[in-house]
Design goal:
The protein contains 17 helices and 11 strands. The protein is an alpha/beta fold. It has 2 domains: about 240 residues, Rossmann fold, CATH 3.40.50; about 140 residues, no CATH class. The strands form 2 sheets. Strands 3-4-6-8-7-9-10-11 form an 8-stranded mixed β-sheet, covered by helices on one side. A 3-stranded mixed β-sheet has the order 1-2-5, with no helix packed on it. Belongs to the type-B carboxylesterase/lipase family.
Length: about 525
C-alpha cells in the first residue's frame, strides 16, 4: 500500500472515504518508484496540517454524540476506557496501539495505520502493551537476550483529570536503540510540575527490527524503521491528543540516551525544514548519537549479512525475503547475536543516514543552524561513559589499543594522538592507585574533591570514560551551577530519592564561555567527525 494513501487517513473519517483511499493505495503501491521512506515523509508533511483541521471538526461532532465518560476515547479505529489512579491523582490510558503490528510482510516497512472500526467495542486500557524484542549492549559475558513481541507499537497516556488543551510531552525511551520500553510511570514527573501538562510515552522497533540497514533493505522496505515509528507516533499525537485533554500545537518531545538521540535526529530531520509541524520544543538528556554511517556503508551492510547468517539465511540472493519469512524467535536471537559481535558497550544496530528523513549527519546539519522546533534543552550526567567502557583499561597502552582497535577504528595514529592530547593524562596509571584519582579535568594536587571525582573509575579508565561520554553522548558546554550529589538506585525517580524540597534553580549563564577545555576537545571531535563518523 502506498504510504501517501494510508497517511491520508490517519485521522478518522467516514467509512466510505477510508475504504476508497485504502483501495486506491493498494492499487498504486506496486507502481510507486519513490522509496517508501521518502514517500512516507513527504506525505506526512503534506497531510498533517489538513488532518488536524479535519480532526478538530470530528472531535467536536463526536463529543455531541458520545457518552459522558471522560475516560472513554474514540480513536476511530478503536475505543478505550482509561482509569483514574487515586494515589497519583492522574488518569491513565495504557497499551494503546498507534500503528498496525509490524509483523510478517510488514517487517522493515513503514508503520501502517490501523483499519477504521466505527463499531469497535470499548476496551479497557489498564495494562501496558508488549515490549519490543531487545537485548543489552555487547559485553564480555554471555549473549544477552530479552524476548519481546514484534507487535509492540503501543503508547501510554498520563493526564491530569479535567485536562483541557494542556501542553503535551512525548517521552521517547532510551536504551541505545536496542533496549527499553515506554512503561515508565510519569506520575512523579507530572505532579512535581503541578499537573501542568500530560505525557504520551511511546515505543518503537529496536535492534535489527528497527535499524537493520543495507542497500537491499532500503530497496525492498525502509531503513531506520524505528525512527519512522516515532514519526508516526508524533503524527498520532498531533491528530489524537486533544481527545485526552492535550494541545496538539504545544508538543515537546523528550527522551534520554537513545531517546534523547532520537530527539536530536528529529531536530535535524529533512535538513531542518519541518519547522514545528510535529513538535515545538525538544528536551534531550544525554543524547546518544553513535557512529553515523550511510545506510549502505560497509559496516551496516556487513551487519545485515551477519544478521542473515545468524538467522539461517543465505549470504547472497534474496536475503530480504528470507528474513521476512523467518519466525520471530529466530530473528530475535539473531539480533542479539549481532549485538554481541559489536564492540564492548555497543549495540549492533543504530540509526543511519538514510537520505529520506535523516539526510545529513548531526555534525554536518547542526553546523548549519537549521533545526526543527523552536528551542531545545540538552543536559548530561557526570561519568556517564563508564558503563560502556571495558574495565581492563589500566595503562595508556590499553587506552590506545581500545581507541584504535575498538572505539575509533577508522582513525589514523595521528588522529588518535589528537584525541589523547585533548584529554591529557592527569592521573596515575597504577591500577592499585586511589579509587578517586581523577575526574579527567585536573589532578588531585590541583584541588579535586570527592564531589568532583568519579566513583567508578580512576586513571586511564576514567580517561577512556570521559572520551566515550563526550564523543558519543554529545556532552555540551556546562554553563554553571552548584554541584549536588546523592546516591540513587535503579528504579526510583530523583524526586523520590532526593532530599525533600530539592529543586533545580535556574539562572542566566554564559552560553559562549566554555569550561575546563571542553571547547578544545569538542573542536577535536568535530575535526574528526567525517572519519569517525559522527
Amino acid at each position: 500500500m502506498a504510504p501517501k494513501r494510508w497517511i491520508s487517513v490517519l485521522v478518522p473519517a467516514s467509512t466510505l472515504v477510508l475504504c476508497a483511499l485504502l483501495a486506491a493505495g493498494a492499487a498504486a503501491g506496486a507502481s510507486d518508484s519513490t522509496d517508501l521512506a521518502t514517500q512516507f515523509v513527504a506525505d506526512l508533511i503534506a497531510n498533517v496540517t489538513g488532518l488536524m483541521q479535519q480532526q478538530q471538526a470530528e472531535v467536536e461532532s463526536s463529543r455531541s454524540c458520545s457518552n459522558d465518560d471522560p475516560l472513554v476515547v474514540d480513536l476511530g479505529y478503536a475505543k478505550y476506557r482509561g482509569y483514574h489512579n487515586a494515589t497519583t491523582g492522574l488518569n491513565y490510558w495504557k497499551g494503546i496501539p498507534f500503528a498496525a503490528p509490524p509483523t510478517g510482510n510488514l517487517r522493515w516497512q513503514p508503520p501502517q495505520m490501523l483499519p477504521p472500526n466505527p463499531d469497535a467495542p470499548i476496551v479497557n486500557a489498564s495494562a501496558f502493551g508488549p515490549v519490543c524484542p531487545q537485548s543489552p549492549p555487547s559485553s564480555a559475558g554471555p549473549v544477552g537476550f530479552i524476548p519481546g513481541d514484534e507487535d509492540c507499537l503501543y503508547l501510554n497516556v498520563y493526564a491530569p483529570p479535567q485536562a483541557v488543551e494542556l501542553p503535551v510531552l512525548v517521552w521517547i525511551h532510551g536504551g541505545g536503540y536496542g533496549l527499553g520500553d515506554g512503561r515508565q510511570d510519569m506520575a512523579d514527573f507530572i505532579n512535581a510540575n503541578n499537573q501542568s501538562f500530560l505525557v504520551v510515552a511511546i515505543q518503537y522497533r529496536l535492534g535489527a527490527f528497527g535499524w537493520l540497514s543495507s542497500a537491499e533493505v532500503k530497496k525492498r522496505g525502509v531503513v531506520n524503521a524505528g525512527m519512522l515509528d516515532q514519526v508516526f507516533a508524533l503524527a498520532w499525537v498531533k491528530t489524537h491528543v486533544r481527545r485526552f485533554g492535550g494541545d496538539p500545537d504545544r508538543v515537546t518531545i523528550s527522551g534520554e540516551s537513545g531517546g534523547a538521540g532520537s530527539v536530536m535526529y528529529h531536530g535535524i530531520a529533512l535538513e531542518g525544514t519541518l519547522g514545528d509541524l510535529l513538535f515545538r520544543q525538544g528536551i534531550a538528556a544525554s543524547p546518544y548519537l553513535p557512529f553515523q554511517y550511510d545506510y549502505d556503508d560497509a559496516l551496516p551492510t556487513k551487519r545485515y549479512y551477519t544478521f542473515a547468517k545468524f538467522a539461517g539465511c543465505p549470504g547472497s540472493g534474496d536475503v530480504f525475503d528470507c528474513l521476512v519469512g523467518k519466525d520471530t524467535l529466530t530473528l530475535q536471537v539473531a539480533s542479539a547475536n549481532v549485538t554481541q559481535t559489536a564492540v564492548h558497550g555497543y549495540w549492533g544496530f543504530w540509526p543511519v543516514t538514510d537520505g529520506s528523513y535523516i539526510v545529513n549527519r548531526p555534525s554536518q546539519q547542526l553546523l548549519t543552524g537549521r533545526v526543527n522546533g523552536r528551542r531545545v534543552l540538552v543536559g548530561h550526567n557526570a561519568n556517564e561513559g563508564s558503563f560502556f567502557v571495558p574495565r581492563n583499561i589500566t595503562t595508556e597502552a590499553d587506552l590506545v589499543n581500545w581507541l584504535s582497535g575498538s572505539e575509533f577504528p577508522n582513525l589514523s595514529p595521528a588522529q588518535i594522538d589528537a584525541i589523547l592530547a585533548a584529554n591529557p593524562n592527569s592521573a596515575p596509571t597504577d591500577p592499585a592507585g586511589p579509587h578517586f584519582a581523577t575526574d579527567g579535568r585536573g589532578t588531585a594536587a590541583a584541588g579535586d574533591t570527592v564531589v568532583q571525582v568519579a566513583p567508578d573509575a580512576n586513571g586511564q579508565l576514567q580517561r577512556a570514560s570521559n572520551i566515550y561520554a563526550e564523543a558519543l553522548f554529545v556532552n555540551l558546554n556546562e554553563t554553571g551551577g552548584t554541584p549536588y550529589t546523592t546516591q540513587l538506585y535503579w528504579g526510583p525517580t530523583v524526586t523520590q530519592m532526593a532530599e525533600p524540597g530539592l529543586r533545580n534553580a535556574f539562572g542566566l549563564g554564559s552560553g559562549v564561555t566554555w569550561e575546563g577545555g571542553r571547547k578544545a576537545r569538542c573542536d577535536v571531535y568535530l575535526s574528526l567527525a567525517d572519519s569517525i563518523p559522527l
